[in-house]
Design a protein that fits this description.
Blueprint (H helix, E strand, L loop, with lengths): L2 H13 L4 H7 L4 H13 L3 E4 L6 E4 L1 H11 L5 H29 E2 L4 E2 L5 H28 L6 H13 L4 H4 L6 H15 L11
Antiparallel strand pairs: 1-2, 3-4
Amino acid sequence: MDDARFRALHALRVKGMTSATVAAAVVAAPEDEIAAALDELGAEGLVRHRSGGRIEGWSLTKDGKAAHAELVAGSVDDDARAALEQAYQAFLPLNGDFKAVCHAWQTRGDDDAPNDHTDATYDDGVVSRLAEVDGRAGEVLDGVGAAVDRMSGYRPRLSAALERVRDGERSAFTAPMKDSYHDIWMELHQDLILSLGRTRDAADEG
């Protein structure tokens, strides 16, 4: 299977149902190549396209999941695997810190009351904490992108999401299905687990 077709399968395995545009961003590939690959894979029954409902996009079929599982193990050579493993071990403590920052964004106070985002000073403080985590993640993300080209898009995507948060777009922090910082971070985590062939357990939560 050629690279574009594998990347298309991998994007859907990481992201779930999504558009060709987002799938291309997930695996750092040209959109036209991923769109063409998805059409081919659809004709072969490895992916399907849903339209006309509240949620539209491409997703893997059962056969597509099986095909991806066979291919992903051979998609990372030994040198890249060693670099990814090192990056993953550095990522895990960052993941714990990131989850704490997300919790602070969504709730506040000893009783974890919902954050209504009416206190700009409080929110600005949480955004600063997010920026600090993002800065610490930079070296990890650079290593991931250098080791595996298809993962090179996470760094610019996270940076773009952080800028949207700084510009006052609250949904860019944790909102689901908004290409939020949280969405992209979770995709990165899933991609690392898949690419390393790990079975996710409590040790993978950081």
